[in-house]
TrEMBL record:
GO terms for cellular component: membrane. It comes from Halobaculum marinum. It comes from the Archaea. The keyword Ligase does not apply. Its main location: membrane. It is a multi-pass membrane protein. The lineage of its organism: Archaea, Methanobacteriati, Methanobacteriota, Stenosarchaea group, Halobacteria. This is YIP1 family protein. InterPro entries: Yip1_dom (IPR006977). The chain crosses the membrane at residues 44-64, 84-111.
Amino acid sequence: MTTWVDNPEGGRARGPAAVARAWVEVLVRPTRFFQTGVAPGDQAPGLVFAVCVAVAFAGSRFVLDPATIPTAFGGPGVSAAVSLLFVAVFVAPAALHLTAALQTVLLILLVRDRAGISETVQVLAYASAPCALAGAPVPALRAVCALYGAGLLALGIREVHDTTTGRAVAATALPAALVFGYGFRGFAAAETLLAQWYVI
């Protein structure tokens, strides 16, 4: 189980400022971040980070494209609030840990000497950093965020599990497709861009 009170040596600090700092660091200095910011048994900051990214993604979608707000909970305001709560409490944690389980199976098949499941969860969480910006209805931005996230995932797996780039890319291809292609709408954005270019 994760530790929410103690701060394991080498792990991430807690709090809003720490989340913001981690977001900037993983975008600007990802190799250094994955080498120093991922610690065994320190899933809690990563989980909080992933929830923040998911809420930022969904919230910006609702604000910038109100048509995406579910209508099952009454008015738009109530529906948006309930949907964001659902994303934070259920969708983001479940998606993170299910994807981590899949990623772990793939690592078992491809990487002999690897780090633990906790580190895999953290890598997946922090790799989602670019997608905090992917809620805007701009296909090019969303596609870039998805590609950057997939690249961060492969880089993080390579650094944390001490494997080769080729094995990291092979191990992360399916999880990246699920998380960034479908979850953060990267594939839909790419299809929109291709359709636009084809018309032009």
